[in-house]
Structures are given as C-alpha cells and as structure tokens.
Amino acid sequence: MATTFYQDRGSPLHRLNPVTKLVGVLMLIVIVFALPIWWVSAAVLVGVVVPAAAVSRCGRTLGGISVKLLLPLLTALVLVQGLFFPEGTTVLAELGPARVTAEGLMFALGIALRIVVLVTAFLLLLLTTHPGDLMSALSQHGMPPKISYVISSTLQIVPAFRDRADAILLAQRARGLRTDGNVLRRAKVLLPLVTPLILGLFTDVEERSTAMEARAFGATRKRTALTVVADTPGQRAARWAMAAVGAVAVVFPFVGGL
Q: Which residue has the higher pLDDT, 183 or 247?
C-alpha cells in the first residue's frame, strides 16, 4: 500500500530537482508569514500555487485533498474570529452575545489564506516529488542522511496516516463493524479507529529505526548514491534567487514599517 501522494504526470514541475521545489515552497511560506497582508497571500495563491498546479496536471487531486483537510479548520476559524474577535468595532450583525465584525472577518481571511498557501504548497510538493528522489537530492547537496530521512518522512505523514486509517477501517468492516451511517454512529467508530492508529505509529517508528540501522545511517563515511538526481546551473541560480526573495520578505516589514 503506497504511503505517498506522488503522481508521475511527466510535467516540467515533476522534472525539477526536488531541492528546487522544496526551496520554492519554503520561499512562499516565508513570504506569506513575513508579510501578513491578506492580498499578499491571495496573490501568492492565485499567481503561483494555482498556475503550478495547472502545469503539473495535479489540480483536481490537489483541490480534493485540500478541501478535505482545510474545510473543517477554516470553518472553525471564520466562526471563532468572525463572532468573537475581541478588537472588532465595525459590527455587521449581532447574534446574542456574539457579534460579527468586519475586523474579525478580515483577520480570519488573512489567517485562512496563509494556511491555504501553506497546505496547498506542501501538498503540491508531495504530488510532484517522489520521496526517494527528495531524500537522494538532499543527500547529494551535503545534508546528513538522518536529516534527509526526517524531512522526507515528515512530508509523508499525511498519506501514511490516510493509508493506515483506510487499512484499519477495512479490517473493522471485515469483522462486521458498521462504519457508515449517521453522525452518532461515525463518532462511535472514531475510538476503535484512533487506538490502533496510534499504536501502529509507535510500531512503525520502531520498524523504521531498525531499517535505518540496517542501512548504516550512522556511518561517517561518504555514501555512494545509487540514483543521481539531475540538477542544472539554472536551478542552482534559481534557488539562490528564491532564498534572496525570502530574505527580502523578512527584512521588508522592518524597513517598510509594516
């Protein structure tokens, strides 16, 4: 059972060096959090993430996964900040003790857009980058194998959770447990799902630790890469340019007085 979102569509974005894509994602996140203005996040989302998803031919998959992950979180964010924002003065509507304020909605919009950029950018990285290629590319650029493994495995947490949860649900259904129905029945299924999911994660950590020891991850000698990930001078220059843009975004609020 696969534990990755990766889909090989043969697009130009798929062929980029994984380190280039990782630096690009980090640059976008630095920009939207260093410049906490809603239209900056909206511009990054519409001007960069959406076109990149279209080029990679992963837009439909990206949209489906993003909606499932973000809809509950964003709904709660808008309700809490829109109704109970303490600094809101422009009241749009009153619902008993709660007040819908323009300031609360704008604050929620800014936070929501930054979260959307964060999640969709990383999901796009997962959809267009094979974890093995990312780990190999990071090692080729001098990163210790253990750190490369941590970064690569961290990006696989969501698909790994999904696959493990699907396997547990299938096993429960095979034993006669009903997992469909109304909200109450689904809530009752949650506990039998969470317990083996958490226990399985601990088992998975132990198995991964044993596999890392068997592959001599602690060795100090330089490794010989079986798979060499292609890189170009243009991509190396682009990575430095993206790092410079991120640095400017961090410094600009102090210089511009934001």
A: 247
Q: Which amino acid is located at 179 in the chain?
A: T
Residue closest to 164 by CA, chosen among 189, 188, 192, 193: 193
Please return the burial class of 7, using the count of CB atoms within 10 Å of its CB with bins 0-12, 13-18 and 19+.
Answer: middle
> How do residues 11-20 score in pLDDT, each as one tens digit?
888 889 999 9
Q: Give the helix, strand, coil percentages of the chain, each rounded to 5.
A: 70, 5, 25
Q: How confident is the model at residue 78 (pLDDT cuts 50, 70, 90)?
A: confident
Angstrom distance (rounded) from CA 57 to CA 124: 10
* pTM for this entry: 0.79
How far, in Å, are 132, 139, 165, 200, 205 from residue 208 at the CA level?
Answer: 15, 18, 19, 12, 5
Give Cβ neighbours of residue 58 (< 8 Å, ≥ 6 apart): 7, 9, 124, 127, 128
